[in-house]
Amino acid sequence: MRSIRAMAFERFFERSFEKSVQNAHAAGIKGAFVEGCTHGVASSLIYLSEAVLFYVGAIFIARGTYTYSQMVEVLNLIVFTVSLGSQLMGFSTWIPRLVLSSLINTSLAQHIATSVQATRDFHRLIQLSSTTQESRGSACPPIRGSITLNKVSFAYPERPEVPVLKNVSLKVREGECVAIVGASGSGKSTIAALLQRLYEPTSGTITIGPNRLGSINVNYLRDHVAVVSQNPNLFDAPISENIAYGSRALSQAQIEEAAGSAHVHDFIMSLPKGYETAVGENASLISGGQAQRIQIARALVRPAKILILDECTSALDPANQAAVLETVMDAKVGRTTVMVTHKIAAMKMCDRILVVHDGAIAETGTFDELMDRKGVFAQLASGGEWFSN
C-alpha cells in the first residue's frame, strides 16, 4: 500500500476495483433475476395446481366420474407432489453450494462466521471519513526548486509519545544530490516519507521552492516526485506496462528512452519478447538488479524534477549494486535527488551528506569532510554500521 500511495497509483487501482465491483454487481443482478423467477414460479405452481384440480374435480363430481372422497385423495396427492417440486426449485440456488461445502469439508458455521465478519468490515469501511490529511491541498504549482525543512518534528500516529524527528531543519538545493544517512531507526526514511506526504509533520513546515508541501494536491505532488524504493514493486505484467504504469499516454519511444536512461534497454532487447516480456510476480523472473533498473526507468519516465531513492541498493549484491549506482549517477543529472542509504559507495557519489542522529541533523558535509571530522559519521562508518560495497 505504501508503494501504491508513493507512486500515486490509487486512481488506477480504484478503476480496477470499480470494474470488478461492476462485474460482480451485474452478475448479482442476473442471479437475483433468475432466483426471483424461480421462486415466483415455484410459489405459483402450488396455487395454480390447486385451482386447476378444484375446477377439474368439480366437473368430474358433477358428471359422476369421481366421488368426493376420490377427488380429495387425488387432490392431496398432486398438491403434495407439486409442493415438493416447487420447494426443490426454490432450494436449487443453494443446493450446489451446500454440496460444494460438504466436498471441501467447510461447515455452515464457518460460512456464517465469514459472512458476519465481512458485514462488520463493510460497516467499518462505510464509516470511514473521506476527509484525511492527504485530502488537504489543491495547488498544482511547478514541483521544482530547493527542498526546505524548517523546524520539523514528527511522531508516528501509533506512538505519539515517541518523537522520531526533533526540530529538524535542512535544505537541499535545486539540482543537488544529497545522501541522508544514519543508524537504523534514526529517522532518515521518515524524512523521505514526509517529502512524499505519506505522513504530515507534527510541527514545522516543508517547502519545495516557494510552495508549502501541505498546500499541494497530493496526487499531483506524487506524479511529479519520482520514488525508487528498496523493493522494485513490479507487477506481473510486460516490462513496457511496468515502465509506463501510472503515467498517461506514453508512446513506445518514450518508454524505450526511459529504459535507455536507466541502462536497461539492452537487457530488455536481449529477451525473447523484448518489452512484452512478463517479469512475473514481484519480478521473480528477472534479477534484482535488472528489476531495480526497470523501477528507475519507471521513475525517469515521469515529469519529475525531484528524485527520492529510499535504500534502493540495500537488497542487492555488490555487482548489481554497482550497476544500479551507475544508473543513478546518470539519473540524478538535472534533478534534485535525495538518497536514503547505508552504503558507503552511494554516499561517495553524492554532493553532500546529511547525518541524522537521534532524530536530528548531527552533521553535514562531503564524505571526506565528515571522515576527517571524526564525529558521528566517522563512528558509524568505521563501526560496521554501514557497508562499503
Oligomeric composition of the shown chains = single chain
By secondary-structure content and strand pairing, the structural class works out as: alpha/beta
Query: What would you report as the Rg, rounded to the nearest angstrom?
Result: 33 Å
CATH class identity of the largest domain: Alpha Beta
What distance lies between the first and last C-alpha atoms, to the nearest angstrom?
A: 30 Å
Give an account of the 3D structure.
- The protein has helices at 2-6, 10-63, 68-90, 95-103, 108-127, 188-195, 218-223, 239-244, 252-261, 265-269, 288-300, 318-331, 344-348, 367-373, 376-382, and strands spanning 147-154, 165-172, 177-182, 203-208, 211-212, 225-228, 306-310, 336-340, 352-357, 360-365.
- It contains 15 helices and ten strands.
- The two termini are 30 Å apart.
- Strands 6-7-8-3-9-10 form a six-stranded mixed beta sheet, with helices on both faces. A four-stranded antiparallel beta sheet has the order 2-1-4-5, with helices on one face.
- The protein has 389 residues and is an alpha/beta fold.
- The chain folds into two domains: 2-93; 147-382, Rossmann fold (3-Layer(aba) Sandwich), CATH 3.40.50.
